[in-house]
Every structure is written in C-alpha cells, then in structure tokens.
Design goal:
The complex is a heterodimer. Chain A is mainly beta. Helix content of chain A is about 0%, strand content about 55%. By secondary structure, chain B is mainly β. In chain B, the strands form 2 sheets. In chain B, strands 2-10-9-4-5-6 form a 6-stranded mixed sheet, with no helix packed on it. Classes of the chains: A mainly beta, B mainly beta.
C-alpha cells in the first residue's frame, strides 16, 4: 500500500525551531514529487512547495520562500519541512502529499501534522 | 501566480439532486503541447486530509464514483456531483497543477438542504 506517514503533533514557543517529517512507503520514494500544504485553523488549503527527492530539486510558493525549508533524504524515504524561528501565525495543520504518476496533482496524502505555536 | 477563484463559497443541495461548483483561473491552464487542462478537484471531510477526485479537469481518480464529474477548459471549470448523497457533505477545492505555485481555490462548503 502506498502511504505517507507524518510525524506527530508539536507544541512550540515563538522563536523556536522545528522540523516535521513525512515518510513514504509502498513506492519508489525518489521518483515522485512530494509537496507540503498548510491549512490554518478553519481555513483553506495553501500550497507551500514541492521537492523531488531524487535530486532535491525544490520549488517554493513565493509566499513561503524564506519562511520554511523543504528537504528530503531518499535513503530513508523521508521528506521534511523545517522552521528556524516559529511564529504564532505558523499554527496550522501541515500535510505532505505526493504527486500522481500522471502529473502534478496530489493523489496520496499524509494524515497531517498539527503545529501549535504559543507562548 | 495563477489565482483560483471558486463560486459559490457555500451551497445547500437536497439529497438526490445535483450540486455544481465553479472554479475560475486567472490565466489559462490549458497546455498547448497536449491539449490538457491542468485543474484538479479535491474533497475534504472534517478532520481528514483532502482526497483527490479529478485531475486534468475531467479525469476521475481511481475509485472515485462516477457521480463526480469535472468539465471546462481554459479558465473556467466545473465540478458536478449528481445524485447527492449524505456522505458528499464536505469542502471542495479546485487546484491548478499547470505552473508553480500550484494554488488552490478558497474552497466551497457543500451541505444538505
């Protein structure tokens, strides 16, 4: 079964750093783009960026570039999203998702990681 | 960036009836190389990740009931849900997957009348 499993919920203070993960299984991890999507409480979906684990080619949404870093380690089939200085406005559910074999929409989704940033 | 705008923001439809959700892109998402329109539709139930329903504007993802259909070309697209069932209550999002950033629409909340 193809699946993405994300790391657990996090509670952090403003200014702290954080790295969340997304592990793929059931397919060749290095050959599919993986993306990250933010969903703030009660709000819609925001496309943050994607990475191709095979060569770490990364594309960011300009709205998020410089705010987060997307990376991947194909040796352990895991993609990451990290922050160096969290803000309260980063409080959201973060989903990882994989592109389909036919193109660039997300057909496999992780379960989501809730990140809460509060003093 | 391509902006995706959905209408309406919410709608209520009776069980067994048809629901129609519209999505407009700020630029064409039609590929001149293959003639495909790069729009996807997702369904999101409360507390769940989104689920892909449609890609390339009208191709149903495997396992999606044929009550769900997508149409449109260029900048105007529609998701149609025929014979509405209670389990179709959800928020629906369109997304362009033509050029990065692959932005989503703001979502349409579908309820039962």
């Amino acid at each position: 079964e193809v699946q993405l499993v994300q790391s657990g919920a996090e509670v952090k203070k403003p200014g702290e750093s954080l790295k969340i993960s997304c592990r793929g299984s059931g397919y060749t991890f290095s050959t599919y783009w993986i993306g990250w999507v933010r969903q703030m409480p009660g709000k819609g979906l925001e496309w943050m960026g994607i990475i191709y684990p095979g060569d770490s080619d990364t594309r960011y949404n300009p709205s998020f570039e410089g705010q987060v870093t997307i990376s991947a380690d194909q040796s352990i089939s895991t993609a990451y999203m990290q922050w160096s200085g969290l803000r309260a406005s980063d409080t959201a559910i973060y989903y990882c998702a994989r592109h389909g074999p036919w193109g660039d929409a997300f057909n496999i989704w992780g379960q989501g990681t809730m990140v809460t940033v509060s003093s | 960036d391509i902006v995706m705008s959905q209408s309406p923001d919410s709608l209520a439809v009776s069980l067994g009836e048809r629901a129609t959700i519209n999505c407009k892109s700020s630029q064409s998402v039609l590929s001149s190389s293959n003639g495909k329109n790069y729009v996807a539709w997702y369904q999101q139930n409360p507390g769940q990740p989104p689920k892909l329903l449609i890609y390339w504007a009208s191709t149903r993802e495997s396992g999606v009931p044929d009550r769900f259909s997508g149409s449109g070309s260029g900048t105007d697209f529609t998701l149609t849900i025929n014979s509405l069932r209670a389990e179709d209550v959800a928020v629906y999002y369109c997304q362009q997957h033509f050029t990065t950033p692959y932005n989503f629409g703001q979502g349409t909340k579908l309820e039962i009348k």
